[in-house]
Specification:
about 25% strand, Rossmann fold, 6 helices, seven-stranded parallel β-sheet, about 35% helix
């Protein structure tokens, strides 16, 4: 199957998710131009992808994006800080970086955002089956989840200013896969010979295969699927 696309910009292309998405789009589609943006070179060298080294947190990032004039933007340059990390670098990348990206992406007709199920609250007192309308009844999510909610709000504002824009938000579950270049805390925990558990408590968790996350992003990139979706098992 081949898709005829316009100019596609992938931010965070050096990540395992970004690199796999770029490789799949390069193989399964015929974009006018495939552009990868990041601070580091992606692990794959793709014949049809142009790499642009840029820091979305920098004030001139919006001008860099404006000159690229993307028709489709897949925004993967987001991160959730761990409990041991300083929140400021992640907040600057997530919120300030997204603001700079959107300021330069005025020509885009489709925006795809990689969000996370971290936008939902968690806690021992929450029901086993959490409905969407229940999310406001409980404690707010952690700092990383609040950042992503702010980023989602920024995309919503962009849509209100440009009604012809298609915005797709994919809230990905915890990802696991053999091709992850950077092990996550969850994968390291599950790799333990005897992972410690808390007696009498079954945490609510949904795992997502890395390949399924890439496919969800690809489908959102090549066709209009407006809305917010939970991408989980």
């Amino acid at each position: 199957m081949c898709f005829l696309l316009g100019r596609i910009l992938i931010t965070g292309v050096a990540s395992s998710l970004g690199a796999d998405l770029a490789r799949r789009l390069d193989a399964d589609s015929k974009p006018g131009q495939l552009i990868g943006l990041d601070l580091e070179q992606p692990p794959y060298r793709l014949r049809r992808m142009r790499f642009v080294k840029a820091d979305l947190r920098h004030p001139n990032a919006s001008e860099v994006v404006r000159r690229l004039a993307p028709e489709v933007v897949v925004h993967l340059a987001l991160r959730i800080s761990s409990a041991t990390e300083s929140r400021r670098p992640s907040h600057e990348l997530n919120v300030i970086g997204t603001m700079n990206l959107l300021a330069g992406a005025r020509s885009a007709r489709r925006l795809v955002l990689k969000s996370s199920t971290a936008v939902y609250a968690s806690g021992l007192r929450m029901p086993s089956l959490l409905r969407e309308e229940d999310s406001n009844r409980f404690a707010p999510p952690g700092p990383g989840g609040r950042d992503l909610l702010e980023v989602e709000s920024l995309l919503h504002d962009q849509y209100l200013a440009n009604p012809g824009l298609t915005v797709t938000v994919l809230r990905l579950g915890q990802r696991l896969g053999s091709r992850r270049s950077r092990p996550s805390p969850l994968s390291e925990y599950l790799a333990l010979p005897r992972p410690p558990t808390v007696a009498g408590f079954d945490p609510r968790i949904q795992l997502l295969a890395e390949e399924d996350a890439v496919e969800a992003l690809q489908r959102a990139a090549v066709a209009d699927h407006a809305g917010t979706y939970n991408a989980t098992a």
